[in-house]
User: What shape does this take?
Amino acid sequence: MTCSKARTTAVCLPDKRVESREDAMQLREVDPRTLSLVMRRLRQVPEAAVAAKQESMRSKGQLSPLVAAEHEEQLVLIDGFARQAAAVRLQLPTVTVEVVKLTAVQMKVQLYVRNRDRGLALVEECRLVRDLCEVEGLSQVEVGALLERHKSWVCRRLGIWKGLSPRLVTQGGIEQLESGAVRKLALLPACNQEQLMAVNQREGLAGRDTSMLIDLWRRAPGAEARTYLLEHPRTAIELARSTAKRAADPRLGESAAKVHESLTVMRQAALRVVRQIRAGLEQMPREGTLMLRKACELVERDCPWALREVRRVVGTENDEA
Assistant: This one.
C-alpha cells in the first residue's frame, strides 16, 4: 500500500488502481431509439422543450451528451429526454451518450441531482419521493439524505402526492401548474380537483389565474357560487382581482358583497322578530310599548327605502324578461 500526504491529512490508496469518475463513465455513440425510457415517467417532457431541442440540434448539432445508466443489460436514459425525443424526430442514426453504472435507486437519485439546478416541478419531486419510499422501500430519512434534503421536505411531498387525485397524476397536466396551485389543489377532494383542472385546460388559464380560481373555490359560500366559478372562471377571476379585498362569492365584487351581507342580516333579523313575537312577550310598561312602536315606525320607513334603492340598481326578474 502506498500513502500520499496532502497538508496534514494522510490518504492511503491500495496498490490496485482506483477508478476515477472518467474511468467509471464511458462515452458511446448509441441509436436514440434503443435507449430505455422507463425513467421518463418521473420527468415531464413538454412539447415546447422537445421542439426547442429539435431546432437546436438541427442547426448546431448535439452540444452535450445524454446520460444513461447501464442496468440489467439495458441503457436506461436518466437525463436528456427532450434531446432523445428531438433526435428521434430528426431521424439521427446515433447520439453521444455518457454511460454510467448505477443501481435502480442511484438512477432515480441521479435524475434528481442532475436536474436540481434547472429545477424540477413540484409534482415531479412528489412522484420521485413517492417512488423512492414506496417502490424502493427507503425511509423518509434515507430519501432525504440521498437527495440532500431534510426529512420534513420529503414528508411534505409525500403528503401532497397522497392528496392529489390519482386520475390527474395518471393523465398528466398538473405538472404545468405552479407549486402553490398544486399545494392548494391537493387540499381539495379528488372530484373537485378534476373539475378545476378541466376548467384550467378548457380555458387555458395561466398559473396565477389557476391559483386564484382554487382560492375562490375554497372560499365560495355554496354550490351555486361554485357552479358559477366552473361556468365563468375568467369573469370571476377578473372581478376578484379588481377589488382590493376579494369577495367570498365569485359573483360579487367587494361593495356588492357587503350589500348582500346586509340584506341577509336584515332578513335574518326579521325572521327572529317573527319567532319572538309568536313565542310571546312579557308584560311591559307603557314606555316599553312606545319604544317598540317607535322601532316599528323606523323599520317601516327605512327598510322599504333600502330595498327600493337596491332594486333601482339590480332591477327585478320581470325587468330581464
